[in-house]
Structure formats: structure tokens, C-alpha cells
Write a structure and sequence with these properties.
Blueprint (H helix, E strand, L loop, with lengths): L11 E6 L13 H11 L3 E8 L7 E4 L2 E6 L15 H7 L1 H25 L3 E5 L1 H12 L6 E5 L2 H7 L2 H12 L3 E4 L2 H10 L7 E2 L19 E5 L8 H10 L5 E5 L5 H10 L6 E5 L6 H7 L2 E4 L8 H8 L4 E4 L4 H4 L7 E3 L4 H13 L1 H19 L1 H21 L1
Parallel strand pairs: 1-2, 1-5, 2-4, 5-6, 6-7, 7-8, 9-10, 9-12, 10-11, 12-13, 13-14
Antiparallel strand pairs: 3-4
Helix pairs in contact: 1-15, 2-3, 3-4, 4-6, 5-6, 8-13, 11-14, 14-15
């Protein structure tokens, strides 16, 4: 794919297919995709994004230099499936949402064919195997255009939910020139469900290195949690660990979710309500101050796809304490760039918290090493270089065929 020996690589055009992308500059929804698109531009790769429409959004937009095309798929009142992270819950709860999802897939397929004609991309890059991967695979069956499919975590959990979903995953992977996941754990999970297909490559998404960096003084007795308030995130275990800790730490909880009221009740029952501050959902720009102030970020999740909040904390030199589960071992090297806890109990987590708070010098060392490791793997340039190689390899294989 070189225009001449020793010359710069030929420019590429990639069409991102996704159901989540920032609706405006500063929006958290799919923000890592915007960072990836911007970083790819530095490597002569032009990205156009195709995503579903939502109320008050333009059909054609340009966000931080990236062209965005949005397609209608339902009456305005029913265009609520994208961007909020609640697609699965909506579809389970409502026949209207199920109908909207079918319409989204159909409208997405039609819009992809039209965008392919108008933008003439070199290849397609679908984010999440469903619904975007299904749309991309359907297009791939009618053309020789290579498809790259990236799985981010929630879609792998979806595939585990039924045999029909696993068949869908296998079909998408078979029609993808390459599949990627954001962690080794997700790659193993996907490969186990599609054993006859080439295993996914591990290629994480970029973190906001321009936003997350160390500064200021830490509160040596303050812990931080960032994430959705649901059972999978393990907040109740964290609350019980805070109650067990002999340091009696304070805790900032950032996030929203259906379990918010029940978790507040747990904090009250444990007698720690006055030590817990519930911030609700915050914009990403509000997070650095909290990371920099915290003695540690605690990630008590189970089966986390990667744990990007752990990366953000590391970039701020904030030590991370996490359960040894899911993709978190990709982020944390035990006792070198953070603490991995193998005892998934409040007592085990409390012991890890107390051990870290006992040794401020070790905590600082973990934070500094964590930042170095995060920059090596999760900087936008490092991620863009990996995907640039992947794109060019896929195109070379397509040409050879």
C-alpha cells in the first residue's frame, strides 16, 4: 500500500459504524472513538462516522474536525436507543424499543450503503459487534470492502446471553477481515464463543492524555469510585470495605444508575453515610480534579471489559486498587502499577485499601509507574499506530485475494 519505495503511505479513508459517538464536543458518549478518529488523522487516515440520529442532533455534523453522518430510524420520540448506554435495558423492557432496534439495523444498513457510495471509504470499522458489526458484515457480503470489528465489552456480555447472540457474533467475526477487543480477557471470551474463527487481536481505545495528568495535593484518606451504579460494578462491596477499613476513609462516588437509592440505604445501614459523597453523573472534564485529590481509585467491578477509569486514574498518577477480574489485569501490573485483589470480599478489599493507605511512599511509586505504563499503551498516538497497521494489513490481504 505504498505509493513508492520510501514514500509516505497512501492516505486512507475509513467509515466508522457505531451507535455511540460524542453528540458534541466534550460529550462522554463514545468519546474514545473521537480521540481515535482524531489521532488517525495524524497518520493520513480520514475518518467519517456514521451513527444513529437522536433528538436535537443534526443529520450532518463536524465535531473537532471529524465528519459525522446521522441516520433517522424511528419517529423522534422513539429515537432513544443510542448514546445513553441503556439500549439493552430498553429493548428488554419495551416492544416499541424492540421495533425501534429492528428499524435501526435496517436504516443503518441502508445508510451505510449510501455513505459507502458517497464517501468511498477504503474500509469499514464497526464498533461493537451489535448492531454496527451486523450492519458492516451485511455490507461486506455484497462487496470486497474489508471490515474491521472492535468489541468493547458490553457486546461480548450480550453474546454470552443466548445461543442466538453467539451465532450472530460468529457470523460477524467470519465476515470481518480482522476483529479486535480492548483487552485480552475479552479476546479470550470472544474466541471461546467463535472457536473456528481467527482469534481477535487486542487493541485498546485511547485515553484522554490531554485531560488526565498529575497536579496538586492528595487527600491521603480519600477514596474514589467512578462508574455506573449497578451490581456488576461492585459498589456495595466497596461500601462494606470502607466500613471495615481501620482508616475510616472518605469516599467520592461518581456515577448514576438504577441502584443509586438502594446503595445509599446500604451506606446508611453501615453507619458511613456521612463519609460518602454522591456526585451523580459528571462530565469527563470534572473528573481530573477528583482523580488528583484521591489517595486511590477503587475499581471493585467483576468482568470489566477493560476499565478505562483505571487508565484515567493512572494518567493522574492516582494509585488503583481493583479486583483481579476481566480486563483489569491488562491495565494493572500487580504491585508495580497498581494493586489487584484476588479476594472478592469486603474484607479482602478493605485489607488492600488499608495496606495502601499505610504506605504513602509505595502509593506514590505505584501512581508514577502507572502513568508511565498508561502512556505507553493508551496514548492516542500509540493506539492510532496500532490501528493504522491493522488497516493497512487488512487492505493488503484484500488486494492479495
Amino acid at each position: 500500500m505504498m505509493s513508492a519505495i520510501g514514500a509516505e503511505p497512501a492516505p486512507l479513508t475509513v467509515l466508522f459504524l457505531t451507535h455511540s459517538f460524542p453528540r458534541h464536543s466534550g460529550d462522554a458518549a463514545g468519546s474514545f472513538l473521537l480521540r481515535l478518529a482524531r489521532a488517525l488523522a495524524e497518520h493520513s487516515i480520514h475518518v467519517t462516522v456514521l451513527a444513529p440520529h437522536a433528538p436535537r442532533l443534526a443529520l450532518h455534523d463536524r465535531i473537532e474536525g471529524i465528519d459525522v453522518i446521522r441516520f433517522r430510524y424511528a419517529p423522534a420520540a422513539n429515537e432513544s436507543l443510542a448514546y445513553t448506554g441503556t439500549m439493552a435495558e430498553q429493548v428488554q423492557a419495551s416492544w416499541a424499543a424492540r421495533a425501534a432496534l429492528l428499524s435501526l439495523v435496517g436504516a443503518g444498513l441502508w445508510s451505510t450503503l449510501r455513505a459507502r457510495r458517497d464517501t468511498r471509504p477504503s474500509l469499514l470499522h464497526a464498533h461493537w459487534w451489535f448492531p454496527a458489526g451486523v450492519i458492516g458484515a451485511a455490507v461486506e457480503t455484497t462487496s470486497s470492502m474489508p471490515l474491521i470489528t472492535t468489541m468493547h465489552g458490553s457486546d461480548v456480555r450480550l453474546a454470552r446471553s443466548s445461543s442466538a447472540a453467539q451465532k450472530g457474533l460468529r457470523w460477524v467475526m467470519r465476515h470481518s477481515r480482522a476483529a479486535t477487543t480492548v483487552s485480552r480477557w475479552l479476546a479470550d471470551q470472544a474466541h471461546a464463543m467463535a472457536p473456528g474463527v481467527a482469534p481477535p487481536q487486542v487493541a485498546p481505545m485511547p485515553a484522554a492524555t490531554d485531560l488526565f495528568f498529575p497536579a496538586g495535593e492528595r487527600d491521603v484518606n480519600r477514596l474514589l469510585f467512578v462508574g455506573r451504579l449497578n451490581a456488576q460494578k461492585g459498589i456495595e462491596v466497596l461500601l462494606r470495605a470502607v466500613a471495615e477499613s481501620r482508616h475510616a476513609p472518605t469516599l467520592d462516588i461518581v456515577g448514576a444508575g438504577d441502584d443509586a437509592s438502594s446503595l445509599r440505604a446500604v451506606a446508611s445501614s453501615l453507619g458511613i453515610a456521612e463519609r460518602v459523597t454522591w456526585h451523580g453523573a459528571l462530565p469527563q472534564t470534572a473528573l481530573p480534579t477528583l482523580y488528583r485529590r484521591a489517595a486511590a481509585l477503587v475499581v471493585p467491578s467483576r468482568d470489566e471489559g477493560l476499565g478505562l477509569v483505571a487508565v484515567e486514574a493512572q494518567l493522574c498518577e492516582t494509585p488503583v486498587i481493583a479486583f483481579n477480574s476481566g480486563g483489569l489485569p491488562d491495565v494493572i501490573a500487580p504491585d508495580r502499577t497498581g494493586v489487584l485483589v484476588r479476594d472478592f470480599t469486603p474484607e479482602g478489599l478493605a485489607h488492600a485499601i488499608d495496606t495502601l493507605l499505610d504506605n504513602r511512599a509505595q502509593a506514590a511509586s505505584l501512581g508514577q509507574a502507572g502513568r508511565r505504563a498508561a502512556l505507553d499503551v493508551f496514548s492516542p498516538d500509540a493506539v492510532a499506530r496500532k490501528y493504522t497497521r491493522l488497516y493497512r494489513d487488512a487492505l493488503a490481504a484484500s488486494t492479495a485475494r
